[in-house]
Amino acid sequence: MSEIETILSPDVPAPAGHYAQAVAYKDLVFVSGQLAPRPDGSHTAGEPFAVQARQALDNLLAVLAAAGCGPADVLKVTAYLVGAAHWPEFNGIYAEAFGPHRPARAVVPVPELHHGYLVEIEAVAVRRKAG
User: Fold this and answer.
1) Are strands 28-34 and 119-126 parallel, antiparallel or unpaired?
2) Which pLDDT tens digit goes with each residue over 12-42?
3) Do you know which Pfam families this protein is assigned to (predicted)?
4) Which is nearest to 24 in space by CA: 70, 56, 68, 60?
5) Topology of domain 5-126, per CATH?
6) Largest Cα–Cα distance of the chain, in whole Å?
7) What is the pLDDT confidence band of residue 113, given thresholds at 50, 70 and 90?
8) Three-state SS across the chain?
């Protein structure tokens, strides 16, 4: 029987609440919503949306890397944006991060996020077997 594995990246601030950065079960990895604090714990809240979106994606990719995954292993992304007006800018930054890979995705406008951030991103990925 497979166990649930907790994933923790040293390149992303540790969770402040009762959750894991990600968990893996068999070949699936579930990444919790990633906000945009920098690796040193300083906040990007209050900075332009593009800065926050890039940092949130960097955090997501760092957690995926700790799980042995990369952008091409992502199956599904859910992004929460404060205000639908950020959608076009997010779409461009997201495309830069994922390149030609196009995971399934939902972009959900929300009224606010924790700590005043403008974006939070979660994902489901697959660990591919070597060989």
Assistant:
1) antiparallel
2) 999 989 999 999 999 999 999 999 999 999 9
3) Ribonuc_L-PSP
4) 68
5) 60s Ribosomal Protein L30; Chain: A; (3.30.1330)
6) 46
7) very high
8) CCCCEEECCCCCCCCCCCCCCEEEECCEEEEEEECCCCCCCCCCCCCCHHHHHHHHHHHHHHHHHHCCCCHHHEEEEEEEEECHHHHHHHHHHHHHHHCCCCCEEEEEEECCCHHHCCEEEEEEEECCCCC
